[in-house]
């Protein structure tokens, strides 16, 4: 047997050799092709980027702002009827005053260092010059340019707040643009003690005009890419909500979502089919968006810069008076959604907040619940907080990439399930597998919902580089899905997180400015306010009002804890212990 075998082997050896050699040759040839294609796809990526840049490149330094948007003819289906009406209304409601002329010299733009604010005397009609709890503080901001001349028009983006760091108290103010270079700020007086007023110029009106132009004309300033792969071949191409097409451009792969109609495109790889898309990732940020002169409007010293007080920047707030008539006359017209006191968030409307300092209280509250979180990294923070703080919750390893997800944590003893999934394109995460790329609206349609279901959404940050219409359409699809969910399962608790201010520098401003965020945020609030069963979590105020933390895109644990307390207070409302007297 053995010898026969040996004989057979030696007889076939040349054939095996030939087979093995041709296999190696085939492999080598393919590796070579693979490398070649990789090189080509990289170089074509650069060619494409530069041609996209030239398509979008503004021809002069100062283009009219309301330029025709025809760069993107395929932004998805149009709204109709009531929704079209709503869209016009919403866009109108966030219209922002523009400088009267384009190309104002930088020295005539608003300068925080030359501007100042003045605390107005108390409005107490009794003549007592005192500020009391329950009243308001009025501040007038005078904007001036770099030459020290008063500004005569509005449009500056200002933020204001009042705070008492020693008692962990803070509240945001309401800024009214008088459109003559003056801004009236109203600050609610909600606690007694010494308090300091802070006015911040986020961007001058001239810088805002530039951001608006970028938003409308350079939606490609963050670009995306996808890897396509089949066998030994792989290619990477550029992707976006819309891409320039033409005889000199490659064909498109159309990934428009069949359910929602949300558009998404990639350039077609040369060798591969559109259905070989493996993943989706942020491609990068376009540079050199502004001319040297234009970039002078975005100096570190003028972005989120403090405006100083002329005279005092602090007041002493006295305890409230009993005379109701005085209080009423004095009361703030605009109340924020809440404020901080001793480091804890106190909502001014809605249900009272409870503090869940012990993880056991959280476990008790979440017992039997299914908690789904969808959106960007700011809602992923909630997953991370709960997962880290509650020892009974064990993260189930789905082998997902770090920071991308999807993620899941379970407490099988108390039947608690926590899930996180990122929203669909234009998500700017590192690399999301194509098979995990889902639209929130479609995910919501897949939830049965019910009294034991909690849904938390946070969708805003990754839309800042697109015209507002793109965001509006996305929210419309999500709102329709939420309405369906709340209709089939009215007990479902839905929490929608708003945007929040963040740290800005000259570069970040062009992609992620708070101005983009505040515009999207107004739309978000308006669209979800009217949907019954939806809780809006005011992350904007919870960040802006915080007495000591600077603005961070990802608010620190202390703020996240207050947010979680608020959500848990909605899941497990406090039992009414005593009747109101
Ligand atoms: C934009 O330009 C196209 C073609 O030039 C025109 O058909 C369209 O009506 C314009 N749209 C607006 C809003 O001006
Ligand atoms: C992409 O597909 C959608 C839906 O199938 C279609 O409405 C849209 O016109 C297509 N886009 C292009 C550029 O062909
Ligand atoms: C209040 O403002 C005045 C004038 O700017 C300053 O001298 C004083 O130290 C401030 N008081 C507090 C408590 O910050
Ligand atoms: C929770 O912790 C905060 C801060 O340490 C404390 O002020 C508060 O009284 C605590 N609340 C409860 C209900 O234990």
- Second-tier CATH architecture of the domain at 351-571: 3-Layer(aba) Sandwich
Q: Which compounds are bound in this model?
A: 2-acetamido-2-deoxy-beta-D-glucopyranose
**Stretches with pLDDT under 50, minimum 5 residues:** 1-7, 27-71
As a whole number of angstroms, the C-alpha radius of gyration is 28 Å
Bin the helical content: 25-40%
The CA-CA distance between the termini, in Å, is: 103 Å
The overall average pLDDT, rounded, is 88
Fourth CATH level, the homologous superfamily of the domain at 351-571: SGNH hydrolase
Features of this protein?
581 residues, alpha+beta, Immunoglobulin-like, Rossmann fold, ten-stranded mixed beta sheet, seven-stranded mixed beta sheet, 13 helices, 25 strands, 32% helix, globular, disordered N terminus, binds 2-acetamido-2-deoxy-beta-D-glucopyranose
Structure overview:
Belongs to the NXPE family. The chain crosses the membrane at residues 12-28. It holds the Pfam family Neurexophilin. Keywords: Membrane, Transmembrane, Transmembrane helix. This is NXPE family member 3-like. The protein has 581 residues and is an alpha+beta fold. The longest helix has 55 residues, at 2-56. Strands 1, 2, 3, 4, 5, 6, 7, 8, 14 and 15 form a ten-stranded mixed beta sheet that branches. A seven-stranded mixed beta sheet has the order 19-20-21-18-23-24-25, with helices on both faces. It has helices at 2-56, 81-93, 205-217, 292-295, 324-330, 359-366, 377-389, 440-445, 468-488, 506-512, 514-529, 539-544, 557-571; strands at 116-119, 131-132, 136-142, 157-164, 169-172, 174-177, 182-188, 193-203, 222-230, 233-240, 252-254, 265-267, 279-285, 305-309, 314-318, 338-341, 344-347, 370-375, 394-396, 407-411, 416-422, 432-433, 453-458, 493-497, 534-537. Mean pLDDT is 88; it is low at 1-7 and 27-71. A hairpin with a 2-residue loop joins strand 16 and strand 17 (344-347). Helix 7 (377-389) crosses helix 13 and helix 9 packs parallel to helix 11. The protein is built from 13 helices and 25 strands. Among the domains are: 106-207 and 305-329, Sandwich (Immunoglobulin-like); 351-571, SGNH hydrolase (Rossmann fold, 3-Layer(aba) Sandwich), CATH 3.40.50. Bound molecules: 2-acetamido-2-deoxy-beta-D-glucopyranose (4 copies).
